[in-house]
Amino acid sequence: MLSDDLIYEKLNDAASIRGFVTAAVALFDEAVDCLINKVFRKNDFAVKSVVDSLFETSGPLAALSIRLKVLLGLGVISQDIFEDITAFLQLKEQLNNDVDEHYFADELILSFTHELQSFKDKALLPTEEMVEDLSTLVGKMKQQRKENLVRSCLILTITEIYRQLAIESPL
Questions:
Q1: How crowded is residue 69: how many other Cβ atoms within 10 Å of its Cβ?
Q2: CA 74 → CA 5, 39, 122, 129, distances in Å?
Q3: d(CA 83, CA 137)
Q4: What is the pLDDT tens value at each position of the chain, 171 positions in all?
Q5: Is 29:88 a contact under the CB 8 Å cutoff?
Q6: CA gap 164, 167 in Å, rounded
Q7: What distance in Å separates the CA atoms of residue 67 and residue 61, rounded to the nearest whole number?
Q8: Smallest Cα–Cα separation from 29: which of 67, 55, 81, 75?
Q9: Rounded Cα gap, residues 134 and 139, in angstroms
């Protein structure tokens, strides 16, 4: 499992919201894979051969969304974590299918962040109606501040989700 600093570094390397969300999903995929290994991968050869074939890249349980459902069904992860990661998967799909470039302060991203269960301090987020006049230096500075604030809130949320996936197997 990665430290908070490495998570922050990976997310900060992303230049766009599309890259940021892709990096977040990759982090979740890695954390879920580690958790699946803790829960299912045993040393017993018979169990190992069956379980490995299910979770391999071509196996029926290879997709992140399916592995999340398995972990939720077993009570390993909470409903909130399941919903948040699923929301990130849906946002990634939406951003990949959208030809327009989005930014952290866009209404789409703001409303997405407001809906995350793991992000508790919603008062930190700017409101959608705070539109800045981008033709002035002050307007550009306020917009950049808004972008940084949303990005920081998302990083904190992703780090919290990742931390909750870094548990020992309860089974």
A1: 15
A2: 30, 10, 30, 42
A3: 39
A4: 788 889 999 999 998 999 999 999 999 999 998 888 887 765 555 455 555 656 666 655 668 888 899 899 989 999 999 999 999 999 999 999 999 999 998 889 999 999 999 998 888 887 655 566 777 888 788 888 889 999 999 999 999 999 999 987 666
A5: no
A6: 6
A7: 6
A8: 67
A9: 5
Residue type, 86: T
- CA–CA gap between residue 162 and residue 30 (Å, rounded): 9
Q: What is the mean pLDDT of the chain?
A: 85
**Amino acid occupying residue 147:** E
Non-local (6+) Cβ contacts of 71 within 8 A are 32, 35, 36, 39, 77, 82
Distance (Å, whole) CA 52 – CA 64: 15
